[in-house]
Amino acid sequence: DAGVTQSPTHLIKTRGQQVTLRCSPKSGHDTVSWYQQALGQGPQFIFQYYEEEERQRGNFPDRFSGHQFPNYSSELNVNALLLGDSALYLCASSWDLAGHTDTQYFGPGTRLTVL
Amino acid sequence: DQQVKQNSPSLSVQEGRISILNCDYTNSMFDYFLWYKKYPAEGPTFLISISSIKDKNEDGRFTVFLNKSAKHLSLHIVPSQPGDSAVYFCAASRDNAGNMLTFGGGTRLMVKP
After folding, report:
1. Interface contact A48, partner B, CB < 8 A
2. Is A29 in contact with A72 (CB distance < 8 Å)?
3. Residue B45: helix, strand or coil by DSSP?
4. Does A25 touch chain B (CB under 8 A)?
5. Tens digit of pLDDT for each residue in A55-70?
6. DSSP assignment, residue B78?
7. Which among A98, B66, B105, B110 is least buried, having the fewest CB atoms inside 10 angstroms?
């Protein structure tokens, strides 16, 4: 049973560029959440997707957008990259229980470096 | 405004002894709490959770205690093993939903053989 997978593992971009990160949820999961983890800090919630719609959003600017596909996989897009966007981006999947999310399982993350 | 805080960035414990990791929160709307463990180059792994209607939850060597009046929770690991060495994050959510997790900054646990 494959867990949560993310691609790519590492990515280097320059300021102003755009980036797309990808996530495949654990088998049987239908909800995907994205988190940003800066160095030495805990993960911060970006947003959550369920039924191809953004269900909840954390305190992140509109430069951060996402998408969920019919197979439940998801993408995180960041436009106009800033140096401060350098972080580990974590995807977590879970099973929706009538609007409540069951335990979230995390992927290994994508390390984004913005130069 | 850090709503979930782990005030000890690191903790060192001898193998076989008890490890106690602490977490404080400020938002009284939080009613579901979780602990995750993270090894380098891996994503956080779920350990144990507790709902605000309970004050204790046990799973093998791991026990989480919740003190709602003090807005404090702790994770006890007994006995500690070298393989427990990792960064531990506490997380909280509202409405028992677990949808949007708010994480603390993490505590690095080192269990010495």
Report:
1. yes
2. yes
3. strand
4. no
5. 889 999 999 999 999 9
6. S
7. A98
Q: How far is A16 from chain B (nearest CA, A)?
A: 27
* A24 close to A106: Cβ distance less than 8 angstroms: no
The strand pair at B86-94 and B102-103 is best described as: antiparallel
Distances in Å between the alpha carbon of A57 and those of A91, B75, B105? 14, 29, 20
In the structure encoding, which two tokens stand for residue A83, read together? 């140096």
Q: Residues A68-115: pLDDT tens digits?
A: 999 999 999 999 999 999 999 999 998 877 656 668 899 999 999 999
Residues of B in contact with A58 (CB under 8 A): 100
**Which of A4, A94, A100 is nearest residue B43 as measured by Cβ atoms?**
A4
- Residue B35: closest CA among B13, B4, B3: B4
Q: What string of pLDDT tens digits covers the 113 residues of chain B?
A: 689 999 999 999 999 999 999 999 999 999 899 999 999 888 999 999 999 999 999 999 999 999 999 999 999 999 999 999 999 999 999 865 557 899 999 999 999 99
Question: CA of A89: which chain B residue's CA is closest?
Answer: B43
* CA A37/CA A20 separation, integer angstroms: 17
Q: Which of B12, B78, B90, B87 is nearest to A39 (CA)?
A: B87
